[in-house]
Structures are given as C-alpha cells and as structure tokens.
Amino acid sequence: MDQLIELFNSGKFLEATIQTLTYVLFAMGVGGILGLILGIFLTVTRKGGILENNPTYWILNFLVNFFRPIPFVLLIFALQPLARAVIGTGIGDPMMLFALTFAASFGIARLVEQNLLTVSPGVIEAARAMGAGPLRTILTVLIPEGLGPVVLGYTFAFIAVVDMTAMAGIIGGGGLGNFAMQYGYRQFNPWVTWSAVLIIILIVQLVQVIGNWIARKLLRR
C-alpha cells in the first residue's frame, strides 16, 4: 500500500493514465476516421450497393479480413518494418500509436459496414427514386440512418483499443497496462495492479454510458 501511495504522489500513476488516454484518443481519432471511410466504401461497393463495384469491394474486404483477426501483440511485431519506413521507428510511443491506429482502422471498418447494412434498403431506394445522387444518398440517408448503431460500434471499438494498450510495454511504451506490469505484477504488489485495473474499468464504464446515451438519442430522433 505504501508503494501505491508513493506512486500516486510521484505522479507516475497520473502519467500512465494520461498515456493510456492519449493512445486511445489518438487511435480512435485517426483510426476512427479511416475506419469510417473504409466501412462506407465496403457498404456502398458491395453487390447491390449504391456504388456497386466488385473489384473494389473484393480488395477492401480482403484487406479487412486479412488484418482484423491478427492478435494485436503479433500485429505490433509484424508492423515494425512498415512503421520504420513510415514514422522512422519501431519502438516506443510512436510505434504504439501507429499500431493502434492501424488495428483500429480495420476493426472499425467492419463495425461500420455491419451497422450501415442495418439501414432499410427501402429508405435508400426512396431517396434514389426522388432523384438523390449516390453521394447525396450516402451523406443524407445512409450515414444518418445508421448513425445510432455506428455509435455503439465505436463504443465497442474504444473498449477494444483500451484493451490493446496493455501491450505497450513490450515495445517500450507506457500506459496503465505497462504500469500494472512493471510496478504491480513484477514487484508482487496487488495494490498497484488492481488500482490500474480499476482506473481502466472506470474509463471503460464512462465511455460505455456516454456511448449508450448518444445512441439512444440518435435512435429516438
């Protein structure tokens, strides 16, 4: 318990919490936008879609199916050569942000696609019958109608990314996962471990509540 108090007073606990939030917010910001774009393209280019294009859909679908199932710890190592070419390093926080964003992009793409497919085809057909072009249909019908489920999908993705941040320590990154491993598990101090776990649970619960609230508002409009 004394060590936990010392870590709190030294600011290391707060630093680890900020690192975790930085990882997650960056990955959800950049990866969320890329995943949204990929998910929309997957939806509209599939067979029967607004912009049906089998070659495009096949390529995007293959990429998502290829990268999404890879366990994150293996993906980190697999992406190191690419990260060195793109950001100049394969370790530390920059590498962790790169890997998280990469994983989030493909994971969110599939979530967006699955949720946009819940939009009734009749609504889309009605918009097209009224003269709306493909882009207008996507922006004013498809996305708004599927926004509630998409928000729930992003909430799920946020929680998944929080889980991935626990792997930061293996490449020299920080965050609560590495904090719990370094000062809790390796030093046989369950107080530190469970304090980090509780902070993560609080973050996840807060995001889940906010996500559910926003989704309910969108679904009732």
From TrEMBL:
Residues 17-211 form the ABC transmembrane type-1 domain. The keyword Transport applies. Pfam families: BPD_transp_1. Keywords: Cell membrane, Membrane, Transmembrane, Transmembrane helix, Transport. This is ABC transporter permease. The chain crosses the membrane at residues 20-45, 57-83, 95-112, 151-171, 191-215. It is found in: Cell membrane. It comes from Leucobacter viscericola.
